[in-house]
Amino acid sequence: MATALLGVGFAGRAVLHTKRGGEPWRAGLSGNGFAVVELFTSEGCSSCPPADALIAQVQQEDKNLPVYILAFHVDYWDRLGWKDAFSDVAYSDRQRRYAAWLNLSSIYTPEVVVNGRQEFVGSESGALHEAIQSGLDQQGDVQLTLSGLKRDGGRLDWQCRAEGVGARAHVSVVVALVERSAVTKVRAGENSGRTLSHVQVVRQFVMASLDGKGNSAGKLDWPAGIAPGEGEVIAFLQDQDNGKIIAATRSQPGQSFAVVTRSGEGNRP
Questions:
Q1: I want to staple 14 with a disulfide (CB 3.0 to 4.6 A). Which of 28, 59, 124, 227 is the partner?
Q2: Which of 135, 127, 136 lies closest to 54, judged by CA?
Q3: φ/ψ (deg, to 5) at 93
Q4: Nearest Cα residue to 201 out of 243, 231, 225
């Protein structure tokens, strides 16, 4: 049960996955769409590990498809016995923004939102698979590219370009740095004594505007302890009037981002 708290070229590619019992749930792709899967979770919530496990399964099943997973660890569970090291008030605020966009009376964990349009309990396998299928089958007319990824000390530079946005006036680009996998030994709270595995953990994210030519650029903090090959950058365009996501992209899996070097560095006597 969920716990409620107030407050690239993939079009036409055939894919086949199976449910438990061998029943296929995806027989093919009819569009050039995508699926941005946002999970709102917490290490302090005993209902969340099944949702974490489900998105880990999707990460493996759909690793060659335009399925972009972001796990936001909310902070409102931190006062209830265990402080989640990956939590941030900004992630809780993002979930509250979805509650406003989707006309929800409360926020809860685990919750999944797909393409900013549909939400449900994060451990509901059938609902997640169907929402991903629906997103992939859509016909999109907006393209987003991500470039200029370079690490400069504890910062990561990024650049984006959007094409086909047209007259949409309130579209922003959201750029997130995710850690592809993490493990935590929980010592208190509802999951006390458990070792929890996570995927696609959001470590930093920013929202930026596009200029008149569809370009945007900025920086993300690169947290200590994340190896270059364990970080992934996901970017998407989101309509701030209704939350709908209209395009998405990511860095190459396992990409080691170029490191900025300056003339004279390393040559001091």
A1: 28
A2: 127
A3: -65, -35
A4: 231
- Dump pLDDT digits (tens) for 37-47: 999 999 999 99
| β-strands 258-259, 143-152 pairing | parallel
**175: nearest Cα among 85, 258, 251, 256:** 251
- Specify the pairing of strand 67-73 against strand 35-41: parallel
Calpha distance 198→42 (Å, rounded):
10
Query: In Å, how far are 33, 72, 135, 241 from 103, measured between CA atoms?
Result: 25, 20, 21, 13
Mean pLDDT of all residues in 186-193 = 97
Whether pTM exceeds 0.90: no
What's the CA dihedral at 173, 197, 45, 50 to 10 degrees?
90
Q: What is the pLDDT of residues 199-233, one digit of tens each?
A: 999 999 999 999 989 999 999 999 988 887 899 99
The DSSP 8-state label assigned to residue 57 in this structure reads: H
Contact between 201 and 71 (Cβ < 8 Å): yes
Start-end of H helices in 31-179: 49-61, 89-101, 125-136
pLDDT for 120-154, tens place per residue? 999 999 999 999 999 999 988 899 999 999 988 78
Residue 248 token pair: 């998405």
Q: Any residues with CB less than 8 A from the CB of 235 and at least 6 apart, and which?
A: 144, 146, 158, 160, 173, 174, 175, 176, 248, 249, 250
- Domains delineated in the chain: 3-259 (2.60.40.10)
Q: What's the CA gap between 187 and 195, in Å, rounded? A: 9
Conformational region of residue 193, where left means phi above 0, alpha means psi within -120 to 50, and beta covers everything else = left
The H or E element spanning position 109 is strand 107-109
